[in-house]
Amino acid sequence: MPDSDARPIVSIRDMHKSFGHVEVLKGISMDVPKGGVVCIIGPSGSGKSTLLRCINALVPIDSGSIRVANFDVHSLTTDKERLALRREVSIVFQQYNLFPHKTALENVMMAPIYVLKEPRDEVRARAIALLKKVGLAAKQDAYPGELSGGQQQRVAIARSLAMRPEVMLFDEVTAALDPETVKEVLNTIRELAAEGMTCMLVTHEMRFARELADTVYFTDGGVIVESGPPAVLFDQPKADRTRAFLSQIL
Amino acid sequence: MNSMHAIDHSPGSTDLPVLLPAAACMARRVAAERRAGSPRLSLRAEHGAVLLAVFVIGCGIAEAQAGADNPSILATLWKWTPLLARGFVFNLAISFVAMAVGTAFGLLLGFAQLSLLRPVKRAAWLTTHFFRNAPWLVLLFYCMFLLPFQITVFGVTIPLPDWVKATLGLALPVMANVAEILRGAMQSIPTAQWESAASLAFSRRQTLWMIILPQCLKRMLPPWMNLYAILTMSTVLASIVGVNEMMTLTRQALSAENRPGLLLSFYSYVLLWFFVYCYPIARWTVRLEARFAVNV
Ligand SMILES: Nc1ncnc2c1ncn2[C@@H]1O[C@H](COP(=O)(O)OP(=O)(O)OP(=O)(O)O)[C@@H](O)[C@H]1O
Ligand SMILES: [Mg+2]
After folding, report:
1. How far is A199 from chain B (nearest CA, A)?
2. Is position B7 within any domain?
3. Does residue B5 surpass a pLDDT of 70?
């Protein structure tokens, strides 16, 4: 038991990624323990989104290794293996990307039914429970076009959760929302974290990062400049780059 | 003077300010047609009014030129109407079949363009562009003269009458345009939809069938209906290759009557028939487009 707990669920070693001639990630290493919450902060273009996409095998990496649960992400070769990985790691994007031709409930139900091949009735019950959990029980029959940004984002989170992933990745999920609705979405994530879901968040919400994260990573120019518990990183940053970034954003 | 240099040269811009609205309008239209994958048929009520006016004038001319022993122009038209109507029904039959065949093969061609196999993709692309850009009449002639009058498959002889060949000839450009409409619709779906489906572990095929295509259908409907209206009007091309459709029958009626004064009234009468059929389709297309544009 302690053995499995001690082993990080996400483990990245010296990961590199280039797009064409531009090296976007230049040797990233990090460990996320099961149930841990890490936040990744950094200026625009520093490769935060790319990092999350690599973990989910949406983007292939050039060198280094990524291990998630029992998957060696860097050596997945077939689509089948990648799809298997994505059942364990789910990503929620800034632009919620719900399927516009399906209702909120159908959005949540689709993947478990067609990908996990679970019985419809069971999935339906679970989907309704998930929508209730994100506070949208009343909106289950609404189409995405009829929902606010914050509501759509919460449906997107429920849709990811319906796959019962081990790890949730959130890529600036509140960046496109107005301040009012940011809170609803953050509350949803807060509850998830409290229930022990492993979460990796790219975020600009520093207060939220401080409150929730076990570890905060500051990335710039494709490298991790500094990392540590939020109290340390936010209050006594060691690197000048971190200090400069925080002074800008706070 | 500085402002002269500041003029933006985006498509539709012009140095002549007077032309700006018209140029912008044209640019918008071209963009819409490119998105839809086929030229836009814009039938308006005014066009109907003009047609009607031409028809009335045509009748007036015919009446004025009529000798004392000729029956009235309206009576003459009425006499021929059952025959012309039969011809029109034939036009519609050709349009239905050509549309059905063209759509079925067009969808296949469109999918082939999405194939991950390079040669398949390439061949589909070439086929689409060839048939989309070839003049319809040329394709029609090719089909008329290159296809045999019958084919034998497994010992069964299937006759290919002229109207079947003409229908196939019209189905070819329809096929290419449907392929293009499908491709346009697929391209209009944000790549984020593919990505979020992939992140939920949907396979490529599942993504295509459950997520992308259902969204495409809605976007394809207006340009597809537009294509149908264009096709219906093009069915009269079949008269050139001797199919007994409305246009051919009109010509026969005119030669039977042997009164040159009837020409304008008869042909504008034919046009009115087509207008009455195609106008609602065109209006409906515009309505659907507007509705989908709002809640895509
Ligand atoms: N598919 C791609 N092809 C080419 N370049 C890409 C691609 N995706 C990202 N990039 C480039 O990689 C760099 C990092 O992008 P990324 O989206 O990971 O940054 P980010 O830290 O998430 O920025 P932001 O805070 O603006 O979201 C950028 O310079 C971007 O232009
Ligand atoms: Mg990003």
Report:
1. 16
2. no
3. no
Residue type, B291: R
Interface test with B, best of A99, A109, A167 (most B CBs within 10 A): A99
Q: Can you list the positions of beta strands (E) in A63-104?
A: 63-68, 71-72, 89-92
Task: Round to whole Å and give the CA distance between A19 and A164.
Answer: 32
Are A158 and A131 a contacting pair, CB within 8 Å? yes
The CATH number of whichever domain residue B257 belongs to comes to: 1.10.3720.10
Q: Quick check: is B31 in a domain?
A: no
Is the pTM higher than 0.90? The answer reads no
Residue A44 Cβ contacting ligand 1 at under 6 Å: yes
Residues 6+ apart with CB under 8 A from B201: A83, A84, A86, A87, A111, A115, A163
- Which range of residues forms the domain containing residue B100? 94-291
Q: Consecutive sets of 10 residues in chain A, 250 residues long: mean pLDDT of each?
A: 66 93 93 93 92 92 92 87 90 90 95 94 94 91 92 93 93 85 87 91 90 92 92 90 86
Q: Are strands B150-153 and B156-159 parallel, antiparallel or unpaired?
A: antiparallel
Contact, A63 vs A73, CB < 8 A? no
Maximum C-alpha span of chain B: 82
Residues B154-167: tens digit of each pLDDT: 888 888 888 888 99
Spatial distance between the Cα atoms of B296 and B292, rounded to a whole number of angstroms: 6
pLDDT in tens, B43-66: 888 888 988 998 888 888 888 877
Residue B5 within any structural domain of the chain: no
Mean predicted confidence (pLDDT) in B233-240? 88
CA distances from B174 to B101, B102, B147, B240 (A): 9, 5, 18, 19
pLDDT at B22 over 80: no
Q: Pick from A111, A110, A176, A162: which is nearest to A132 by CA?
A: A162
Does B240 fall in a domain?
Answer: yes
Per-residue pLDDT at B273 exceeds 80:
yes
pLDDT of residue B295: 52
- Surface of B (181-220) touching A: CB under 8 A: 190, 192-193, 195-204, 206, 210-211, 214-215, 218
Distance CA A175, CA A204 (A): 8
Helix (H) or strand (E) holding B267: helix B263-294
Residues A61 and A141: beta-carbon distance below 8 Å: no
Residues of chain B contacting residue A97, judged by C-beta atoms under 8 Å apart:
190, 192-193, 195-196
Q: Answer for the pair B147, B169: CB distance below 8 angstroms, yes or no.
A: no
Number of structural domains chain B divides into: 1
Q: What are phi and psi of A71, to 5 degrees?
A: -105, 130
Sign of the Cα torsion A148, A149, A155, A159 reads positive
SS3 A15: strand
